[in-house]
Amino acid sequence: MIVRKCAPADKAIWVEMNREFMDKELCGNEFWTETRDRGNADLENAFDAALKAEPSIILLIFENEEGETVGFVNLNTVFSIWSNGDAMIVDDFYIREDYRGRGYGKEGLVLVEKFALDNNIKRIQFHSNLDDENAAKIWDEIGYYPIDVKFYMRYI
């Protein structure tokens, strides 16, 4: 599998995968209704804005050996005083349903770590839903450990 930065030509597939992700992962949670109900035009605009915001926002695509798009990861970078350098926040990590259970999630995380090392990132962090046992299993197996914090959020 390869990981590469999104290019403008990836807009349609990135929107399609984000729609899949939202439809699957965000259903049943009323807090995310506003996000899930956004139209494709909003996602297209978000894609364009993210590409312009690099290196603060980095969009990566995962492709398998056959060139099929397997998933994506949306990253944010911030300067961390505690890490004495840049930290990377994994905002969204998605492997398409048809490719799950084949090791692409683990391989994708390894590629994200390599990307971080190649870009002098000092720390990787992310948040995950408490009830997402599959994600927790993968993160645990790779050597990440959970820290009990509360994640606060409000749309303004």
Report on the structure:
It is a single chain. The termini are far apart. The protein has 156 residues and is of the alpha+beta class. The chain has one domain (2-142): 3-Layer(aba) Sandwich (Aminopeptidase), CATH 3.40.630.30. A hairpin with a 4-residue loop joins strand 3 and strand 4. Helices cover 37% and strands 24% of the residues. The protein is globular. It has a five-stranded mixed sheet, with helices on both faces.
Give the helices and strands as they follow along the chain.
EHHHEEEHEH
**Average pLDDT value?**
85
- Considering the protein shown, what is the CATH homologous superfamily? Gcn5-related N-acetyltransferase (GNAT)
Overall CATH architecture: 3-Layer(aba) Sandwich
CATH class bucket: Alpha Beta
Helix-residue proportion = 25-40%
Total helix count? 5
What is the SS-derived class? alpha+beta
Question: Nearest-angstrom radius of gyration?
Answer: 15 Å
What is the CATH topology classification name? Aminopeptidase
Number of strands: 5
Low-confidence parts, pLDDT < 50 over ≥5 residues? none
**Spatial order of strands in the largest sheet:** 1-2-3-4-5
Pfam family, one: Acetyltransf_1
InterPro entries: Acyl_CoA_acyltransferase (IPR016181), Diverse_Substrate_AcTransf (IPR051016), GNAT_dom (IPR000182)
Keywords: Acyltransferase, Transferase
Protein name: GNAT family N-acetyltransferase
